[in-house]
Design a protein that fits this description.
It is a single chain. By secondary structure, this protein is of the alpha/beta class. The protein contains 6 helices and 7 strands; from the N terminus they run βαβαβαβαβαββα. It has a 7-stranded mixed β-sheet with strand order 3-2-1-4-5-6-7, sandwiched between helices. Strand 4, helix 4 and strand 5 form a beta-alpha-beta unit. Helix 1 packs parallel to helix 6. The longest helix has 27 residues. The protein binds 5-O-phosphono-beta-D-ribofuranosylamine.
């Protein structure tokens, strides 16, 4: 079995996508292992989940840096590199990145977004999808570039929008897809880059 590629997972909250990646990484035949779970928020539930699972965790609280986004990102970048990670997975990391961090990890940073991009970038995607009356909604894994939710799309998964959907019900169905899609796309991407 070739060596597993070390990845850093960046979160800000619940961390259910992080958990999906963690479960995939625990399989012997999966081509990645998590070298760091990093949060910008000390109260992120996912930090505790990762810590309890024995993973290296770190909080670099953006509030400690005030308006100095660059210094915060430098600290984040250093921590990722120190962990040995070769790829970064954003998994509900609720910070808009500056070109600094984006450039450091060009082609090596993935994000999951809860809509079928280019439809509904930004926040409140499920509400927006319902309001727009679309028939299908879903999630996208893309490479991170300077524009928010704009990078090259690696894969998408979709679900039908049902007549009695609420934003919560729709979000839950999309989230199930996210949990399946992220580990699969990450593994494919590692194979494509020939990292594993
Ligand atoms: C997910 O819907 C993800 O697509 C979006 O933020 C949410 C994070 O959820 N970027 P979780 O923290 O992974 O549970």
């Amino acid at each position: 079995m070739p060596q597993k590629t070390p990845i850093a997972v960046l979160i800000s909250g619940r961390g259910s996508n992080m958990t999906a990646l963690m479960e995939a990484c625990s399989r012997p035949d999966y081509p990645a292992r998590i070298s760091l779970v990093l949060s910008n928020r000390p109260d992120a539930i996912g930090l505790k989940t990762a810590h309890d699972a024995g993973l290296p965790t770190l909080c670099i609280d953006h509030k400690q840096y005030g308006k100095d986004r660059r210094s915060h990102e430098k600290a984040v970048d250093e921590a990722i590199r120190q962990s040995g990670a070769q790829l970064v997975c954003l998994a509900g990391y609720m910070r808009v990145l500056t070109p600094f961090l984006v450039q450091q990890w060009q082609g090596k940073m993935l994000n999951i977004h809860p809509s079928l991009l280019p439809a509904f970038p930004g926040l409140h995607t499920h509400e927006a999808a319902l309001k727009a009356g679309v028939q299908r909604h879903g999630c996208t894994i893309h490479l991170v570039t300077d524009g928010v939710d704009e990078g090259p799309i690696l894969a998408q998964a979709s679900v039908p929008v049902l007549p009695d959907d609420t934003a919560e019900r729709l979000a839950a169905r999309v989230l199930e897809q996210e949990h399946q899609l992220y580990p699969r796309v990450l593994a494919d991407y590692i194979t494509k880059l020939n990292l594993a």
